[in-house]
Design brief:
Length: 147
């Protein structure tokens, strides 16, 4: 199971300092741990998520779509192991690692007005904090080897 939260302050959905364990708290972190879920949050708990006119959507959504593209007939961008397929972990990890670069492109573009759709009320928050996703990976790893 995977939950993707593309919203401001989304890493706050799993409390800071959460430690999974039996009889834990009743929050989303414990539910994710109990169910073997992965949660990809687009920002840290105190940060905002950019919506970009340049990309036509939020940065995390763009990165998730971009991860599956195949430039010039090559393998998908998220295919880290080169096996001509994208696992869930590769897909989510690609997006988690790509968003800060997209963020920087938007900030650089904003300074030269290439992306005029960035909400001017977020300028101060955006310039102080890079948009950095958080991946909470409680996915159960299958240790069986296929024959």
């Amino acid at each position: 199971m995977v939950m993707i939260i593309d919203a401001c302050h989304s890493a706050g959905s799993v409390p800071a300092g959460f430690k999974p364990g039996p009889m834990g708290d009743r929050g989303l972190g414990q539910l994710a741990y109990d169910k073997g879920m992965r949660i990809l949050a687009t920002t840290q708990a105190a940060d905002v998520a950019l919506e970009s006119g340049k990309y036509g959507q939020g940065l995390l959504t763009f990165a998730l779509k971009e991860a599956l593209t195949r430039p010039s007939g090559t393998r998908a961008l998220a295919d880290a192991d080169g096996r001509d397929g994208v696992s869930m972990k590769e897909w989510l990890t690609y997006a988690e690692q790509r968003v800060p670069g997209l963020y920087q492109e938007i900030i650089d573009g904003k300074k030269s007005t290439r992306d005029p759709i960035v909400d001017p009320t977020l300028i101060e928050d955006v310039t102080r904090h890079a948009q950095t996703p958080a991946l909470f990976d409680f996915g159960k790893v299958n240790t069986q080897v296929a024959n």
